[in-house]
Amino acid sequence: MRVARSRGLHGWRGFAFVVPYLIVLVAFGILPVLYAVKLAFTTDGGGWAGFRNFTHSAGDYRFMSALGHVLVFTSVWLSLLIVFVVTLALLLHGRASRSSAAYRFLYYIPGALAGAASVLVWLFMLDPSVSPGSFFVHHVLGAHLFVESIAPGKLPLIFAMIAFWTGAGGWVVVMYGALNTIPQELEDAARIDGAGPLTLALRIKLPLIRKWIAYMVILSFATGTQLFVEPQLVNQASLGMVPDTWSSNQLAYQLAFRYADFNSAAAISVDLLAIGLLGAVVIISRTGLFKVES
Amino acid sequence: MALLLRGARVAVLAAFGVFFVGPLLWLVLAPTKSDHELVSRGPFTFGSIHHVALAWKHLYAFSDHIYLTWIGNSLLYAVTATAIVLVTAIPAGYCLALGSFPGRRLVLTLTLVVMMMPAAALVLPIFLELNALHLIGSVLSVILPFAFFPFGVNLAYIYYSTALPRELLDAARVDGCGEWGTFRRVALPLAKPVVALVLFFSFVSDWNNFFLPYTVLGDSKQYPIQVGLSTLLSSTPSFNPAVGGGGQQVGIFRPELALATLVAVVPVAIVFMLSQRSLVRGLVGGGVKE
């Protein structure tokens, strides 16, 4: 045993394997965060500012409305995800068949489109003159012109739909995978006790995938608060009818770029980082889905 | 009653199928029609190949074939960054799984935490850092941050800690391989599946990233395709009436914009669909491993 211990990647010997990664981890994971925190707590000239940058940026007349937009968008998106992802996964799991795999595949395809591409596709879908869903655009959104589709009041719903369209399929697949880890005997026992497919789904399966639903909700909440691409592109497509400070991240971006107020921009970034960090820590420490030690 | 329920189930599943796939089908068919036909003809009709060629001609001519430059930039950024990711992430995952150096737990925890954080949360902090280093506007300001990919490290870590028999490595050491030789001759060749996974995920996430390059690049000749698409959007009259007559000059209308979007996503979409299974394994790997 002693011989085996002296060999292998023990002590500092294996360290060389991690060094290249450590460099990028520090340079683009840790240092940016520390630097943003430093900027957020200092003044333009480098002096200590306390919480002044935070109160100053939070006092900006656009801060609360951007925060409100982001929170409404995130709530709508999370509701869509919880209701439909879970429903679809349960429906697909109820009767495993070849069609179930085909549906999962179809739902998953839009996941390939992210960034600007998915937004452009949906701008087409919201243009009543070319959209295949013009019926819905007319009757659900009440829009007859493209500019009416992207009226400010409808944006949280529209962004939630775009985010749902690109991401929901992946989550359906994940939930389906989680459902598959439920032991067959458990289902069989419930069936013998007279449980129908609905009881089985709601009383047996749903409670057993709670952890995964929590994971989806926390991760999506943290992602939702960072919204940037969608409102930025809609701003370009709306002739400024939609402000370029619609979301919190956009406001931080504008503070840095238009006003060169890096300290206030850093303060908002730190607010958003804190939300992301909190989400990550809650997922890792509470859901038990990701363990550091094997 | 049972029949009714079964019917309702199929109806719900099919309706969502249409919701998820319909927009993509429309996108594939849109460049086959002229801008006028897009409005006048049915949304899911096929026009003609001739229109696709015409739309491509306009797209190619736009701003001195800058569209191809954008695609080339995206390739350059994604390929270079992914190469660095492979060189850094695979050995790191290997060592985190099988080694024990001081601070190992800390590195693992940090990796997991950053992996779980939305990537967008780090963009402005990275911008502020690069700005202080006067790297803004350089190609490196995109490639270097892309090279940090904790998800890849986690994939390699999970693979090496679950799928690789330690005895095999010990055997190699007994045979006189040094640590580096053991990794290169035994551990690396055995990790082909995970190398492919990391390559794919890193490439796709770089290709699709909009926020970081949008923030750190100034010159439109340096844009990757995602940022380029936003420029095209601003040049399309039906979405931005301010271009009006300008739209006539640059020849970018809805079919051209649709074609540009399609060309930008097709390569990724194909690889994406092929790797569905591995993706899911990667996503749930940390959770379901025994």
TrEMBL record, chain B:
Residue spans crossing the bilayer: 7-29, 75-99, 106-128, 134-160, 186-204, 257-274
GO cellular component, one term: plasma membrane
Residue ranges of every copy of the ABC transmembrane type-1 domain listed in the record: 71-275
Transport among keywords: yes
Location(s) in or outside the cell: Cell membrane
Keyword Transmembrane: yes
Domain of life: Bacteria
Key words, A-Z: Cell membrane, Membrane, Transmembrane, Transmembrane helix, Transport
One Pfam family, short name: BPD_transp_1
GO annotation (BP), single: transmembrane transport
Entry-linked InterPro entries: MetI-like, MetI-like_sf
Predominant location category: membrane
Family under the similarity heading: Belongs to the binding-protein-dependent transport system permease family.
Name by which UniProt lists this protein: Carbohydrate ABC transporter permease
Taxonomic placement: Bacteria, Bacillati, Actinomycetota, Actinomycetes, Propionibacteriales
